[in-house]
Task: structure prediction
Amino acid sequence: MSLHGVRIAGTGSCLPERVVTNADLEKRLDTIDEWIRSRTGIGERRWASEDEATSDFAIPAGRRALEAAGCDPADVDFVICATLTPDMPMPSTAGLIQRGLNLEKAGGFDLSSACAGFVHALTVGTNYVRTGSAKNVLVVGAETMTKVLDHSDRATAVIFADGAGAALLQPAPAGESDVLASRYGLRGDDEVLLLKGGGSRYPTTHESVDEKLHLIFMEGRATFRFAVKTFASLITETCDDAGIAPQDLKLIVPHQVNMRIIEAACTRAKVSTDKCFLNIETVGNTSAASVPIALDDAVRAGKLERGDLVLMLAFGGGLSWSSILLRW
Result:
């Protein structure tokens, strides 16, 4: 079998119109702007309205990625949507994207790996293209995290936000762009970072709603320790797999989880935070949408040129983690 190089041909993103500042949160929570900024690096975030759902952001993000790549929707072979907040359990949000963009021949599915989902989905989509199973794979990361937030919980209500990002994968000419390495991992855990309600273990009942089982829970200190160690390892080990040094990277696009986590991980990996593209201050943590939104922002800001080495990495509930390193 002849294997193809793979490139990201276009990116896109979409955010809700509603801006929620730290000053807005001061009015409803026992918190202040200084506390939020010092612990998260976030100054404002975007929240969906009550009548907006995940696909309302995923579809425009996908459309912009196709436009950036100059790809006709009729030519898309596959769509993968990474999300933990689908519009509904069935049909898949990927199916709603397929319908919304009129992707006439596309197959697809949703992928659930929390904040690590988009980077996982890029690896899956890469293998469809690399093996010749598909020529155009649309990968979307989309979330409406505010639908599953406990808005009285200071630990999570100040962090999470909504939005979507997308990337179109295509075959790359020989010797040009390509995916050089990827890593992924999973550690089954139902204590540190979780959303219990709604599945077969804890189906929806009056009791489960009263107990807030349908809302995100995060044990902050354990999450911080795990994230710093995992981020640092992903940087060094993924670069090792590709045969490069972290210093050779033009850009790191990390999951916009928390500024303190990113800074601590970079210090541990001996990489300058100047290599990281960060938009957490104005976008917040959008879970699976975080990396593709930041990537699209970086591309449109002119931060990447063909041939540059870029590393994307994320971790999330599961606990799960993933990375992908490519020559742009």
Q: What stands out?
A: The radius of gyration is 19 Å. Residues 5-172 form a domain with the Peroxisomal Thiolase; Chain A, domain 1 fold (CATH 3.40.47.10). The chain has eleven helices and 13 strands.
